[in-house]
Every structure is written in C-alpha cells, then in structure tokens.
Design goal:
This protein is of the alpha+beta class. Helices cover 29% and strands 26% of the residues. Strands 1, 2, 5, 6 and 7 form a five-stranded antiparallel sheet that branches. Strands 3-4 form a two-stranded parallel sheet. The longest helix has 12 residues. The protein is elongated.
Length: 171
C-alpha cells in the first residue's frame, strides 16, 4: 500500500525486503514485553524471576516470526537458556485467555496489553510475573514513501512527529 501510493505513511517495522533509503523513517517506539500467568500460578508471588525459572512451564504465545515471539526467543538465547519446548501457538486472545485460566501456562504480551488484561474489572484473573530482565520488541517507525507528497491531513499530523509519536505511546 505505501509503495503503491495508497497510504501517506504507515506505522510499522520495515520488512527486510525493502530498501530503507526509499523511505523517510521516523522512530516511533519500541514495545516492552510483559509475561503473564493466572493469579494463582505457582510463580505469581515470586520476585525477580529469571528466564531459567520459566523455561519448564507451558507457554501459550503467538506464532513463529511474530515480533513478540521473536523478542521472547531472543531473550532466552541471550540468557543462554533453552527456549521452552512446551508451546501452544495461537494468535487468538480468547484461546490464550482460556488456556491461561485453566493451566499453569505463561504468555508474553505487550506491556500495554498486559496492563489492560490485569485490570480487576476485566475479570481475566491474570498477573504480570515479576521478572529480572526487560524483554523488548524491535522498534516500529512512522514510514513515508520518500517520493510521495503527503495529503494535507497527513502533513498536519507529520508537522510535529514527536507529538504524533507521543500520542501513539499514550494510546
């Protein structure tokens, strides 16, 4: 869509098959990953958990090559800890929530999603595990086609990309 001129800009990670020189790329933000489990999970009260403490549990996470899955696997590799072998792959939030509620499985979600899922009025009965390591997803960017004129509305948004990026963080 962006290359064909259908969009003024996209908020995304630049796929490796594209040449970054063809685009104007403005840093937006990176995501922090939170690890969640049900409130009465055996590790829910533990402090400063290491990835080694989590490797033998069952996991319910997004499919291979999803940004959060890659960040999680990279964190295990960086810590010299074997990636968990007992993984259920799903992109369905409903499947993930049901699985977490009925098992000792752990999931990885963006910090924003984790905050939403742990609010008491939602009733998801989940808790963010206290881990000693930050897990970060590769950043995403505001990407514009370098050879395309922006529409008036997009020009207004991009007049101060810093404010635009801050509005992304706040939402």
């Amino acid at each position: 869509g962006l290359v064909e001129g259908e969009f003024d800009f996209v908020i995304a990670r630049l796929p490796p098959e594209y040449d970054s020189r063809d685009f104007k790329i403005i840093p937006a933000r990176s995501e922090i990953v939170s690890l969640l489990a049900r409130k009465n999970h055996p590790l829910s009260g533990a402090k400063q958990l290491q990835l080694a403490d989590l490797k033998d549990y069952e996991w319910v996470i997004q499919e291979h090559r999803s940004p959060i899955r890659q960040a999680l696997e990279n964190a295990f590799h960086s810590s010299n800890v074997k990636v968990p072998s007992n993984i259920t792959n799903t992109s369905s939030a409903l499947v993930m929530l049901t699985y977490l509620e009925n098992t000792d499985a752990i999931t990885a979600q963006s910090q924003e999603v984790a905050l939403m899922l742990t609010r008491p009025y939602l009733g998801a009965n989940l808790k963010v595990l206290d881990t000693s390591e930050d897990i970060r997803v590769s950043p995403f960017f505001i990407i514009q086609n370098r050879n395309q004129q922006l529409s008036p509305a997009a020009s207004l948004l991009m007049k101060d990309p810093g404010d635009f990026v801050l509005s992304l963080v706040a939402s």
